[in-house]
Amino acid sequence: MSEVRERATEAAAGRGDPAPARADPQLDCEVLIVGAGLSGLATAVYLQKSGIDDVLLLERSHTLGGTWRDNTYPGCTVDLPTIYYSFSFAPLFDWSTFYAPQSELFSYCRMIADKHGLTGKIRCDSLVSACRYDAAANVWITELADGRRFVSRYLTVATGLFSTPNLPDIEGVERFRGKVFHSTAWDHSYDLRSKTAAVIGNGATGVQIIPEVAEVVDRLDVYQRTPTWVLPKPDKPLSPRMKWALKHVPGFAYLLRQLAFLVIDIPLYGILIDHPRFRWLAKRLERVCVEHIRRELPDPELQAKMIPTFDFGCRRPTWSNKYYKAFRRPNVRLVTDRIARVTEDSIVTADGEERKIDAIILATGFRRGERHTQPTIPIFGKGGQELEDFWDAQGRQAFKGVSITGFPNLFLTFGPYSVNSLSFIRMMEASAFHIARVMRAARARRANYVEVTPEAQARDQELMTRLSTRNIFLHGQCAGALPADTLKAPRGGLRPRNSLASWLEQQTFRLSSYAFARKG
After folding, report:
1. Lowest mean pLDDT across 36-40, 157-161, 500-504
2. Per-residue three-class SS string for 214-241
3. Do 112 and 130 form a contact (C-beta atoms < 8 A)?
4. DSSP letter string over 114-166?
5. Bridge partners of residue 386, in order along the sequence
6. Cβ of 245: how many Cβ atoms within 10 Å?
7. φ and ψ at 120, to 5 degrees?
8. Is 360 helix (H, G, I), strand (E, B) or coil?
């Protein structure tokens, strides 16, 4: 498992010249962004649109792209219509289908960096180990694992939601002599043809992987702990006529984005944040999913194992027209018994059955809500207080999901209570707009120090708490979907606002929520 962990979180040491250590630090840049995935790129674009060009992005890997660089597993696609999963400032691209594959989304990231002049501002192979605020100089000092450091006035941490693979603690897996890899570190040099493989996990990633692997292996065992609600996927290639209309008909792309918002985002997010009012819709979607299962799977016993017992929305649903069909293949078996241990060449389940295998594929998702997973690095604010310690004491919170009292000149792109849409793109843009707006205000005031006031943060946290009383985790039947402690604890992730309301919040909050000053 140690080899899997290294591959899944691999980040080479940086190769640039070290920043000189001085008692009076000199700035390497005005704004340092940690992470060159979509959220880091969006923040840099919005800053440049605001006239803030002195920006550097640190990327732990060999190139930009984040999620769409790392996830190259077979069948990897976006699970929302691509026109909805693209930035408002770059909605058009040469998409091949309504649900673009990984390769096109990775190219989309590179296109954004090139078009907006960001490619030369990205420092790859730069693994950040810690970020520290120097109050005397009013700067952020970002330390890298290779000993380099960067000094900046402002710091934005854009390490994303899907940065830390969840590697299950399974007894004996380190003794397995076959191949083991996580979906984020797919080994394309390993030939699965004529092999016996096991896929552990059947969330959104597993739903995409399983049909593709089933076509090439001799036998595939799918280990399911919890079933997933899977909707039919209305996917088809984009016709030449549609591509022409997107490029040449004024407002057409914008109209499709808003239509997707109305049809997808508002109803499904309503199920999450106002479950009592939208329970009828959740039940209707459950019926659609059950009908989908029964159409695709003729075996009633298999149907029963794959129909969730929890409400639609307790876990993120997904879309597929191929997933259930895979289980009609004679070489695919569903295993619902708990994994007891792994031997040198097999998986043994709690019922005592041993299944010989050549490869184990971990489609087990990502760690979230734990220390140093969101963001992924230690951050030390005023007085040396570590951000995770602050959250442990005060609860996970951030003003509008972006700023935290006690951590001046620091912004997060995916802070607590920032998740406000099924389209992460809309969340990224909302946070990026917030950051650029605050920095514009600082420049207008000739300030170089900004910090959200304790009163503003407390009001925002009180609002989140008050508006979260009708969410699905309190009013839905979610037992079995998530660990019991997760359901009971404050989640600090789901913002009780749809993406339109959140976008308006980021444009209209009072700038007096921040203290502006000139220091250092």
Report:
1. 500-504
2. HCCCCEEEEECCCCCCEECCCCCECCHH
3. no
4. HHTT-GGGEE-S--EEEEEEETTTTEEEEEETTS-EEEEEEEEE---SS-SB-
5. 380
6. 14
7. -75, -10
8. strand
Measured from the Cβ of residue 255, the count of other Cβ atoms closer than 10 Å reads: 12
Q: How far apart are CA 485 and CA 23, in angstroms?
A: 46
| Contact criterion met (CB below 8 Å) for 406 and 381 | yes
- β-partners of residue 419 are 494
What's the confidence (pLDDT) of residue 19? 37
Q: How far apart are CA 92 and CA 375, in angstroms?
A: 30
Helix (H) or strand (E) holding 453: none
Task: Reply yes or no on whether the pLDDT at 20 is more than 80.
Answer: no
Contacts of 272 (CB under 8 A, 6+ apart): 313, 471, 472, 494
Q: What is the tens place of the pLDDT at every residue in 166-200?
A: 888 899 999 999 999 999 999 999 999 999 999 99
Q: How far apart are CA 170 and CA 181, in angstroms?
A: 14
The encoded tokens of residue 217 equal 């292996």
User: Dihedral (C-alpha) 316, 458, 141, 28: value to the nearest 10 degrees?
Assistant: 90
Contact 197, 361 (CB under 8 A): yes
**What's the DSSP call for residue 512?**
G
Distance CA 86, CA 89 (A): 8
Contact (CB, 8 A) for 431 and 39: yes
The one-character DSSP state at 313 is T
Where do we find the tokens 């009708």? 470
Rounded to a whole number of angstroms, the distance between the first and last alpha carbons of the chain is: 47
Give residue for tokens 């006031």. 453
Comparing CA positions, the residue from 443, 457, 384 lying closest to residue 415 is: 457
58 contacts 126 by C-beta, under 8 angstroms: yes
